[in-house]
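call fold(seq) -> tokens
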Amino acid sequence: MCTYITKHLEIAGSAKGSSGWFPATTASVYFDHPVHAPADHTLNIDVLNLSLGPEHRVALELDPASARSLAQAILELVDGLPAVNR
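ret:
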């Protein structure tokens, strides 16, 4: 089921798309029908730079279990960083 809930956040980093590396400035997270993944619904993450146009976008479509595992791995890794790197 689509929730129509979308979270947009500003990010600071880089992403590699079809045109190569670009500054990643925005992320969108939402639960919806996937375009490519073999599932009825997926957690979708778009990393993009709106000022550079639609070709500067990287997309993920994850089943809920994979999304949870990825989120937990990210939190565990960041929580284990020395305080100076957080």
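The chain has a mean pLDDT of 92.
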